[in-house]
Amino acid sequence: MGKAYHPQCFTCVVCHHCLDGVPFTVDATSQVHCIEDFHRKFAPRCSVCGNAIMPEPGQEETVRIVALDRSFHIGCYKCEECGLLLSSEGEGRGCYPLDGHILCKSCSARRIQELSSKITTDC
């Protein structure tokens, strides 16, 4: 980083643990963070549980699902109506959004059917 530090002075700005010989990163304001605190502070938040979407301990990467401009943990990406775990890979388990809601195929079809039955042709 172009600066000299005593090893004991090179610490994370959040937890203050020594980062000598430990992986670290720097934020946009050049503040030094341990990897875990950086993820906690800057990681996207899951729109269901509100927790940061960050790698599991011992992992370097994680998967984030984005739908309707919202972020989800894999385990939180469920149909809002029936709770079916959704996936882009599973047959019949895709997301069928309707009016801003994350729905499975059958719940979306049921809602569309309900909405269609409410439409009247009365003048």
- By DSSP, the count of extended strands is 4
Largest sheet: 2 strands, antiparallel
Order of helices and strands: EEHEEH
Query: Gyration radius, to the nearest Å?
Result: 22 Å
Q: Give the end-to-end Cα distance, rounded to a whole number of Å.
A: 73 Å
From the helix content, strand content and strand pairing, which structural class follows?
A: alpha+beta
The strand order across the widest sheet is 1-2
* Helix fraction by DSSP (H/I, runs of at least 4): 10-25%
Alpha plus pi helix count: 2
Poorly predicted ranges: none
Oligomeric composition of the shown chains: single chain
Strand content of the residues, in percent? 5-15%
What are the key terms here?
two-stranded antiparallel sheet, single chain, alpha+beta, 123 residues, 18% helix, 4 strands
Please tell me about this protein's structure.
There is one protein chain. This protein is α+β, with helices and mostly antiparallel strands and 123 residues long. The chain has a domain at 78-119. The chain is 18% helix and 10% strand. The chain has two helices and four strands, in the order ββαββα. The chain has helices at 35-42, 105-118, and strands at 24-26, 32-34, 65-67, 70-72. The strands form two sheets. Strands 1-2 form a two-stranded antiparallel ribbon. The chain has a two-stranded antiparallel ribbon with strand order 3-4. β1 (24-26) and β2 (32-34) form a beta hairpin. The protein is elongated.
